[in-house]
Design goal:
The protein is mainly β. Helix content is 4%, strand content 41%. The protein has a single domain (2-350), classed as Beta-galactosidase, Chain A, domain 5 (Distorted Sandwich), CATH 2.70.98.10. The chain has helices spanning 61-66, 231-235, 242-245, and strands at 2-10, 16-23, 29-33, 39-45, 51-53, 75-76, 82-83, 87-90, 93-96, 105-106, 119-123, 126-133, 144-152, 157-166, 170-171, 175-176, 194-197, 201-205, 211-217, 229-230, 251-255, 264-270, 276-282, 286-290, 299-300, 306-307, 314-318, 333-334, 340-350.
Length: 352
């Protein structure tokens, strides 16, 4: 195991963005930027023994800035996903947050964690990123101290450990917005990927992709991934299935079948062309499947690759979207001086 650092980019104001390379077994590695805590690359072997990058990413800060509305590979906070009406009440006080998704609040606001340059240090075999989100930032209460640890193990498992503590009651729901294509970031489509997820139910959304409050069974719907299913089978019905129309494909939160706060394997993404699979582990109660429905067809990424619509997908572990308005759901409220700590891992392998 080794971690090295180099300069990724220098901003006009002289600020430096570093890139850290976390090397695992053999030639496998992960690249992390201090800008946005972005995962830029994940290079792992395929069934033929060839190495390949399975993550969408870019060559410069300017490229990330121009595609900021897609949150490529970034850490998301304070609150991932949507808050309906861009407002919530906490301890009798109403907090109005940014309306950056129509009338709703999305992924932390105009200047979320994805827009910050994080402090970084190497601790043993891990990369530790940290920021302070001041009281009132994006109108959230509390001075929030945030630390996110990235660790890439010899069995090609990338773990993300989220830590936070606030001096006031606040709301926190962090995730990462990595876009995966296990056939290779430059392959062009995730239609032939197969997905299996341990979830009997999902949160039904309205036309703005915001939960209605209903939790419905996946049985008999396109949301049923309890047994492995080809992603493209559902995407082909994006204009005729009510669940698929609002997000132009999959953009849904699933309720995971596990006890609250228990860490376990919850699903597997796989593909047959290169034979890679990715097991997902988390202690969060939900996960958002987003199939890159709004990727611009002219987006130029690493190695001059042009990323196409549905050329990659996200698996965002989280509290359910808009949970702050649904007290019956697992709560994203973080009480003063309590510790927020959650872990998500992506473990890569090859089929035999």
């Amino acid at each position: 195991m080794s971690i090295t650092k180099r300069i990724f980019d220098i901003l006009p104001d002289g600020k430096v963005i570093d890139i850290y390379k976390l090397t695992g077994k053999g030639d496998a590695y992960v690249e992390i930027l201090t800008y946005g805590g972005i995962i830029r690359s994940i290079v792992v072997p395929d069934k033929f023994g060839n190495m390949g990058d399975v993550l969408v990413g870019f060559e410069s800060h300017k490229d990330y800035l121009e595609t900021a509305d897609a949150y490529y590979g970034a850490l998301i906070g304070r609150v991932a996903n949507r808050i309906a009406g861009a407002s919530f009440e906490l301890n009798g006080t109403t907090y109005d947050v940014a309306k950056n998704d129509g009338q709703n609040h999305l992924h932390g606001g105009f200047i979320g964690f994805n827009s910050k340059i994080w402090n970084a240090k190497i601790v043993d075999d891990s990369l530790e990123l940290s920021i302070i989100s001041e009281d009132g930032e994006e109108n959230y209460p509390g001075r929030l101290e945030v630390t996110v640890v990235y660790k890439f193990s010899r069995n090609n498992t990338l773990s993300i450990i989220y830590n936070a503590v606030s001096d006031k009651d606040t709301v926190v729901n962090m995730t990462n917005h990595a876009y995966f294509n296990l056939s290779g970031h430059d392959f062009g489509s995730i239609y032939d990927h197969t997905f299996q997820l341990d979830a009997d139910t999902y949160t039904v959304s309205d036309k703005y992709c915001t939960p209605t409050g209903e939790i419905a069974k996946v049985e008999g719907t396109l949301m049923d991934f309890r047994t492995p299913k080809r992603i493209g089978d559902g995407l082909m019905q994006d204009t005729i299935d009510a669940d698929m129309i609002a997000g132009g494909g999959y953009d849904h939160n699933f309720v995971l079948n596990k006890p609250l706060n228990s860490y376990k394997k919850i699903g597997t993404l796989s593909e047959d062309i290169k034979g890679r699979y990715m097991d997902v582990f988390t202690d969060k109660p939900g996960i958002q499947l987003y199939t890159g429905n709004f990727i611009h067809g002219d987006t130029v990424g690493k190695d001059g690759c042009v990323y196409k619509r549905r050329g990659a997908l996200c698996l965002e572990t989280q509290f359910y979207p808009d949970a702050v308005h649904h007290p019956e759901w697992p709560s994203p409220i973080l009480r003063a001086n309590e510790k927020y700590k959650y872990t998500t891992s992506f473990s890569f392998g090859v089929s035999k």
